[in-house]
Amino acid sequence: MICMGVTASAPAKVIMFGEHFVVYGEPAIVLAIDKRAYARVEQRKDGKLFFRSLNLSLSGYFENGNFKVEEGDAREARLRFEPLKCVVDKVLEKSGERVGLDIEVNSAIPVAAGLGSSAATAASVAAAVSALLGVKAAKEDVFRIAFEAEKITHGTPSGVDPAIATFGGALMFQMDTGFRPIEVKCEIPLVVGDTGVNRSTRVQVMKVRGVMDRHPHIFRFMREIAREIVLEALEALKRGDLEALGELMNLNHALLYGVGVSDESLEWLINAARKAGATGAKLTGAGGGGCMIALAESERIGKVLEAVQTAGGRAFIAKKTDEGVKIEQG
Ligand code: MEV
Q1: What is the pTM of this model?
Q2: Atom of ligand 1 nearest to the CA of 119
Q3: Ranges under pLDDT 50 in the chain
Q4: Best label site of 84, 169, 230, 327, fewest CB within 10 Å?
Q5: Architecture of domain 190-318 in CATH?
């Protein structure tokens, strides 16, 4: 049975530790945060799959395998909507139906900034279309479908972004063992600073691959250090030890800097946060621009926020959320 319209949403994320090295099988620690992407879907009669992104001002439709743009740049629209079409096709396949759909997405998550906006959008589309068509989709199914879409967007993703967008909370993620929720007993006061420099995850991941290819022995040691940082961070999270967590963030950033995924805009904001009293700061996500995060004691967090803003970052205080993908209204 098909109902009128369904809205679903999924959260943004920050990777606290382990990005990039997670692509090579090392663990990462990731938190879902209180900014969400939304997808609203409705059935349409003409058999088209019509996509609109309110935050990117793009729209267009797929008909008989062809894409036609209606609003915005055709290449950009196709790039954004193709992964979402893959999501819709997978759900349609499961449902056995062949229907036209209006899919409207809107995201409060900065795009191409390392906060997982593409994965959150894909997860919310998967959940909304499944609910609309009455297809039973457990969170594992939504994760798997969003992961397929991420492969189109980013090439060789680890799966960490769709996992946290689907399950929410705080996760330790590793490619071969999957993910497990981690208990975070303390508050984690985090400032997120967006450099405003857009970048592609695919390009940053390829940059790291180049370093690995040219210096395989050194890279092996860097992987081991990245793993140790995550394991020590897990212990520090259990103890609620913000000093240790901050120091580990600084160490993690040094590794990411070493493999070439930081840039001037990130260094600028990271230094500003450290000078203002952050216990630690690092880039988060793919780097090359995008976002940084800074950890600070609660009484210092306001100062750190101000310092990142004064340094030119679009900054906000992030709160962990336990809500993964969910139906908002059906
Ligand atoms: C992107 O948010 C995180 C990376 O580690 C890539 C991935 O894990 O797929 C850079």
Answers
A1: 0.93
A2: 2
A3: 1
A4: 327
A5: 2-Layer Sandwich (3.30)
